[in-house]
Amino acid sequence: MQEQDKVDSLQDVISTPIKDVEYITNWLITKGSEVGWSLVSAIFTLVIGLWLAGKLKKLIEKRMIARNVDLSIRTFLIPIINIVLKMIVIMFVVSRLGLDASGLIAALGGAGLAIGLALQGSLSNFAAGILIIIFKPFKVGDYIVSQGNEGTVESISLLNTVIATAKGQVVTLPNANLFNNPIVNYSVKEYRRLDVNIGISYNDDFDKAREVLLGVLEKNELVDDTQSKTVEILEFAASSVNLAVRCYVKNSDYWTAYWQLYKAVKYALDENNISIPYPHTEMIIKNDSNSTTIPFENKD
């Protein structure tokens, strides 16, 4: 009887580890298959989700173009839409892995708060970008001047506005600085006043000069005939009578008309013997018989 008990005890000692190994093996196989399937499903969701997000972004952009949505709004909103769509895809991927999406959202919120506190300047630029889109002090394609920078607006992004200058330079301006400082927008109005300031000699006939300069304005095809043309005395300078020659041209023709009028004014004045004086100093010599020296007096 004792021999039988020893045999049973030995069998229990041998069989118990084997059962434990079988349990662990079955658990690993079951959980491994579940984890593997979740991982494959998550990868599949990520790939398909990013593809669909890209297609949806392009579709939204096409719809905006078809509805003639302003280019400034499109360039501002499309990146935001792209980020939101990708965040949604990430949420689906997290749920496919069996993780708690609410915990991830809370973690992202905390991280966003910390990043926001560290990047307060960037947040102000972001807010200013939204205000620029809403109130539209300028838009893409406008010619603006702000803080000593001038050029054509190429893009309005989340944080910055990019302008291209007439010199071929690209200037990136923070949105907050733009929105909080004066902006001169030359593209709001269809026409722009062109000023040609020219000086004539004090000895020249003003009426003749005025007639000649008005003729120059009349002959130029880029000058708008429906608006006023002005040739008047601007100031009496040290060595010349400065005239204000003013007219209106289209914004798109401004620089072309600028070069044409300055050249035409020079030729017209030369042809009519009207001088354009250069700065000079007039010297008067006084002859004092009671003095052995001859003083000089400069008169500007």
Describe this entry's structure for a reader.
The chain is an alpha+beta fold. It has three domains: 11-99, no CATH class; 142-185, SH3 type barrels (Roll), CATH 2.30.30; 191-272, Alpha-Beta Plaits, CATH 3.30.70.100. Helix content is 54%, strand content 20%. It is built from seven helices and ten strands. The strands form three sheets. Strands 4-3-2-1-5 form a five-stranded antiparallel β-sheet. A three-stranded antiparallel β-sheet has the order 6-8-7, covered by helices on one side. It has a two-stranded antiparallel sheet with strand order 9-10. A hairpin with a 2-residue loop joins strand 1 (143-146) and strand 2. The protein is elongated, with a radius of gyration of 40 Å. It starts with a helix and ends with a strand. Mean pLDDT is 79; it is low at 296-300. Keywords: Cell membrane, Membrane, Transmembrane, Transmembrane helix. It is found in: Cell membrane.
Concise description?
The chain is α+β, with helices and mostly antiparallel strands and 300 residues long.
Order of helices and strands: HHHHEEEEHEEHEEHEE
Class derived from helix and strand content: alpha+beta
Largest sheet: 5 strands, antiparallel
Q: Compute the separation of the termini in Å.
A: 140 Å
Q: How many structural domains does the protein architecture include? A: 3
Number of distinct helices = 7
Helix share bin: 40-55%
Unreliable spans: 296-300
What's the oligomerization state? single chain
> Radius of gyration, rounded?
40 Å
Provide the β-strand percentage band. Answer: 15-25%
Principal-axis shape equals: elongated
Mean pLDDT rating: 79
